[in-house]
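To: structure desk
From: M.T.
Subject: fold request, one chain
Message: Could you run this one when you get a chance? Sequence is below, nothing fancy, just the single chain.
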Amino acid sequence: MITVREVQTRQDRLDFIQYPNRLYANVPQYVPALVIDELNNLSPQKNPAFEYCEMRFFLAEKNGEIVGRIGGIISHKANEIWQEKKMRITRMDFIEDYEVFQALINVIEQWALASGLTEIAGPIGFCDLDKEGMLVDGFDRDGMFITYYNFPYYPRFMEQYGFEKDADWTEHIITLECPERERMERISNRIIERSGFRILQFHHKRQLKPYIPQVFELINSEYEGLYGVVPLTQSQIQYYANQFISLINLRYISLIADKENCLAAFGILAPSLADAMKKCRGRLFPTGWYHLLKAIHKPRILDMYLVAIKAEYRKTGLPAVLMNDIYKRARTDGILYAETGPELETNHNIQNMWDFFKAEMNIKRRRCWIKHINN
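Reply: Done. Structure tokens follow.
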């Protein structure tokens, strides 16, 4: 018999967070989440997104064993901005049993109906900095610290239940082979000389901190209009800044200021934490911190977290300045390649930035599904 119960206690939350570690225990592509981050993300006392979101979590059990999990989010801000009545599905995992899947979706659907909503969609999180998208292609590829992994039967079950595609993201490998390296360098130098742009240099994280508000202001302005995006609040900005700043290496962050010393563009890449997270299974102690620090300070692969260019500068050649700056440092350090995070398949402004490099495009595809519901 399948039962679904709501997460209530701290132990329930730990079971909810760590269930994927059991489900994917023998899957080499799976990358665990950092447990402490997830505990904070799911806590109304810690995560500022709860200021405008309602969220509930559920565990499915069969014969006394946990066999699935699911979270639901009502983002009142997103529904207001996008003029929707949508329930967001998040953090959904389950064994290959359609009845378990049905039981999980049904509890979210019933909550949505009781709340006067007309759609359920996901996987999608609190905001654009949360994990989003179900893997529908590229199951044989290693996951990333910032993305979900799931089995191939997930999308099959979604279609069987009546879900349809709402949006797709794609991911790419950007190699350090740059056939147009000299051209990129010439364009970069010319743009800097003529336009007064300045590449900011940081040697200590405290030097970066004064620019963090500008980074998030640029995210809010330039990501506006992208699928499901809501502007980050000041408390969210501080929350995510605290999470990310411990995981970055200043060598792979590029910030470019204009002649008024306002932030014009940025690229934030971070050392890949995939192998480190696999070794520590998402826990900092007793030895997880060692694996993470080693990955941060001696990387061979980079993950592209965030890129943004102020709209007025997109056609000035500034993308070349950004790419050239990061490329030179990565090449000097012997980086093998960089992997992009999920990019909306329609976001050609970002995808065009990889034209200077030899790239393996569309190595993975992930999807946000949608289903219309009614009484």
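Reply (cont.): The longest strand covers residues 359-372. Let me know if you need anything else for the meeting.
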